[in-house]
Write a structure and sequence with these properties.
The chain has helices at residues 3-18, 27-33, 58-68, 73-84, 90-103, 107-124, and strands spanning 22-26, 44-48. By secondary structure, it is mainly alpha-helical.
Length: 125
């Protein structure tokens, strides 16, 4: 991680901790926690109520990125699937993506994810 980004992250975490705010690290920094390297220019933090976590799970990061469905997110999803394949709770991811697809009336979210997952499965297994 770039030194400036690391210093900024440390300052933000110190501030949040000092003020008793709960948060989760998401985005590019969370990807690096899950062994997926991607250059990032920013720090993505979600403030939380009544939940103390440091980094979102790989499954929740996948769900967040699929629901955002930006083209730049799909390589991250692919990298997470490859890196975390043997530890991912696939049914959890599929269940949530199914719910989001229904609620947002975007069935292509789930179908694109399942297609990518199938491609990765053929490579890995």
């Amino acid at each position: 991680m770039d030194r400036q980004l690391r210093d900024a992250l440390e300052q933000v975490i110190n501030y949040l901790d000092a003020n008793g705010l709960r948060y989760a690290i998401v985005g590019g920094i969370a990807l690096s926690y899950w062994n997926v390297s991607r250059f990032t220019y920013d720090i993505d933090i979600k403030l939380l109520d009544e939940l103390q976590v440091w980094v979102c799970t790989a499954e929740d990061l996948i769900i967040q990125k699929v629901v955002a469905s930006r083209e730049k997110d799909w390589p991250d999803v692919e990298a997470l699937l490859i890196e975390q394949w043997h530890t991912l709770d696939q049914s959890y991811v599929e269940d949530w993506l199914s719910q989001f697809s229904d609620a947002l009336e975007t069935p292509e979210l789930l179908s694109r994810y399942l297609s990518l997952r199938g491609k990765i499965q053929r490579i890995i297994e």
